[in-house]
Amino acid sequence: MVEFTGKINGIVFENDQDLYKILDVEIVGELKGYSRDEIKVTGSFGDVQVNGSYQFEGKLVMHNKFGLQFRASSYKQILPHEEGSLTRYLSSDKFPGIGKKAAGKIINALGLNALSVLKEKPSKIDTLSLTQKQKDTLLSGVNSIDSYSEIILKLAQFGINKKVAGRLYQLYHGDTLKKLQADLYASVAEVTGYGFKRADQLGRGLGITSEDPRRIKGAIFQILIDELSSKGNTYVELAKLLTDASKLLNIKKFDPIANCVNDLQHEGKIVVDGENAALQNIFQTETDIARIMKNLVEKRQEQDKNEQYDPKDVEAAIKEAEKRLKIKYDETQKAAIENALTHPISILTGGPGTGKTTIINGILLALRELADIPASALYSSDPPFLLAAPTGRAAKRMEEITGITAKTIHRLLGLGIGENNPDDLNELNGEILIIDEMSMVDMFLFKQLISNINQTRHIVFVGDKDQLPSVGAGNVFSDLIKSKAFPTTVLKRIHRQGENSTIITLAHDINDNKDQDNIFKKTKNYSFIKCQPSLISQAISQIVKLALKRGFSKDDIQVLGAMYHGDGGVNNLNNVIQGIMNPPKKDSKYIIAHDEIFRIGDRILQLQNNPERDIYNGQIGKIVGIDVQSSKRCLIASFDEREVSFSKKDLIDLTRAYAITIHKSQGSEFPLVILNLTMQNYVMLKRNLLYTAVTRAEKNLVLVGDPRAYVMALNTPGNDRKTGLTAKLRKQLGMSEQNSEQEGTEDKAAENESVKEKKPKDYILTSELIYSGQIDPMIGMQGIKLKAK
Ligand SMILES: Nc1ncnc2c1ncn2[C@@H]1O[C@H](COP(=O)(O)OP(=O)(O)OP(=O)(O)O)[C@@H](O)[C@H]1O
User: Which residues are in the AAA+ ATPase domain (predicted)?
Assistant: First the structure.
C-alpha cells in the first residue's frame, strides 16, 4: 500500500450505478514510484469535491493505454483549514443555505479547525448564532465528510457487499449508518439487493425481536414489492399478505402483522382498499389514471355537445376511405371507425391480421374528410393527428402504413430527453391521438401520457389484449377493456391471406383454446420438432444452419425462448448461434462485457428505455464498429439505420440478440421465428406467452421442444395480473361494481377522492387464528376475515 496527498482537479468519469470514478489529481508532496505532478486516480468514491484535498491509499497500476494510474482502495478528505479555503468550502453547495457571512460566523466562533471541532463535538453547534436550518445543514454536511469509506467499511462488517452498500450510500449519503441504525428494515423498499432477508440477518444479529414492528413492516413491504415486480400485481389480498408475512417472519400469530398493516396505513405507506392491500404510490397511480380518464371523458363530452358529426356524414366519410384504400370494411371494422369518430375515447383490440392498421388508416382518412383537414396541416409543426406507440418499431410501422409521422410515446411527450422535469412535457392537442401496441404500455407511462393530453378531441387505444401484458407493473390495456367504460371493438375476423396464413390461424386457435393438435401439425408455414431439453441447443443450431442453407438471410432468423438460463436458455443459445452466424475471424475486433463477447456484425438488443438516444427496451440493432481504446465510444451500433454509440458504462444495457426472450420480443416481428419451450420453463408456460411468441413470426415458424410444455401453455390462461384499475375506473365513471369479489368496504363518500384524502380504516381479525406449521396456512385462513373496526 502506498499513500499520497492530492488535490482533485476534476472528475474524468463517474458511474452513477456503482460510484466508480476516475479522478484527475494534482499531487501535493510526493507519490513514491511516480515522478509527474498529476495522476489519474481510480476507485469507488462517495461525494468528492473538486478542488478538495484528499489522502489516497492504494497502489500504482499500469493501464495499457493510459500508463501509470493510482488505484485507490480508500481515501480520506483533508479538511480545509486556511481562512480562504475554509470560507469557500463552507459556502459551497455542500452546505446549502450557508453563505460567506455565515461561514465567517462559524470561523469566528470555532476557529480554523471548525470542521474537525464539529465532527468530534457536534454539541458545539449550539454556540453558533445561525438559524436552525443552517445548523442542520452544517451538521449533516460535517457528518458526511469523509464518510464514504467509513460507511462502506462499517457495512462490510455487517456483511453488506460493496455494491449494495454503494446503493445505500447513494440514497442516504452521510446519513446511511444513522438511517440503518434507526431502522434496518426501512430500506427494504428502497434499495435493490437489500431485501428483507438481508435486513433480517443484520436485525436478528443485533437482537431485534421477531415481533418488532419494524421487522414486520419490512416483511409486508417485501411481499408487496415481490408481487409487483415479479408478477406485475398491483395489490395483494389481505389474507394472502398476512399468511405470506407470517411465513416470511416465522411468526405464528397474525395480530401483530394486522397491527402493522394498520400502522403502515396511518403512515401513508400502504393503502388497504376493501380486502386488498397495495403500496401507496401504486394505488395512487391507479387512482390518478382513473381520475384523469374521467376528466378526459367529461371535458370532451362538454366540448362535443354541439359538434357531433352527422351519422350520415360519418358513413359517407368511411365510404370515401374504402374507395381510397380499395377495400370494403366488414361491419365490426366499420363500428370501430365509427366509435373512434363519435366518442372521446375508444378502444380497438384484435389479433394479427384482423385489420387494426387498416382501421387506423380508415379513421384518419375519414377524419380528414369530416374535419376538413388539408394535406398541408398533416405535416405542420402542430399536426392534428398524433400517432404514437411504445416502441420505435411499432411507431415506424404506423408511419409507413399511414404516411403520417408517428413517434414513440416518450418522443411524443418529450419524456426523458434532456433535463426535463415531469411537469414540463409536451402538451397534446389535435383532432385525434392514436396509440398502437397498447398492451405494452405500463401504468406509469400511461399516466404520463394521459396527464399531458389537453385538447385532443378523440383518443383511440389500439392493441392486442391477448398478448403478454406490459413488462412494467399493471395491465392497463386489459383493465381499460374490462372496465367496459369505453366503447370497445374486438376484431375476430382474419383478413390477412397468403404467405403466413397458417401461422395466423394457429395464433387465433391458441388464443381461443381450439384444436390443440394443430400446433403439432406440419403446415406450409410452421412445423413442430420434438426435442428433449438437453438437446435444444443442438437442435436449434441445426435448424439455423439449415435455414441459412435454404436461403434465409441471417437477419431474418430469430430464436425465441422463455428464460435466460439452461441449455435452451437465451444466454447459451446466443453463444451457439453467434458461433454460426458471426464466428471469430483473425484480427476481428471484439469487446467483452458482463461475460458476453460482442463482435462487429453481431445482432444486439437494447434492454432499457433510453429516450435521450431514442432507443428503447426490446429494440434490436447491429454492431457496426468497435473501438476498445475508447471508453466513451467503444461500440457503435445501427438501430433502424441510425448509428448510436455506446460507452463502456452503457454496455450493461446491451446483450446479443440472436436469441431473445419472448417478453423482449413484444412489438417486433421476424420472417422466421424458432421458438423453444420445455418443462424447465414450467412457471412461465401460459397461453399469452405462447400466443405472443407465435404472433412474432411473419412467414415461418419452427416450434422446438417438449410437447407437454406446449400443451401446458395452451391450457393455462394468461393475463391474470391482479390490478385495481378496472374497479377504480368504474367507480370514477359512476358505474356499478362489476362483481362481488371487487366489492370493497370503502364508503361512498370516499369514492372520488385521492389516497391522500382517504382515511385509513383499522382492521381487526374477526376470530383468533392459531398458526400451525403443519398445515397450509391458507387452509387456516378459511373463514378468517379482516373487517373494519
Ligand atoms: N376489410 C378488409 N378487406 C380486405 N382486406 C383487408 C380488410 N381489412 C384488412 N385487410 C387486409 O388484411 C391484412 C391485415 O390487416 P392489418 O395489417 O390492418 O391487420 P393488423 O391487425 O394490423 O395485423 P398485425 O397486427 O398482424 O399487423 C392487410 O393486408 C390488409 O390490407
Answer: 342-495
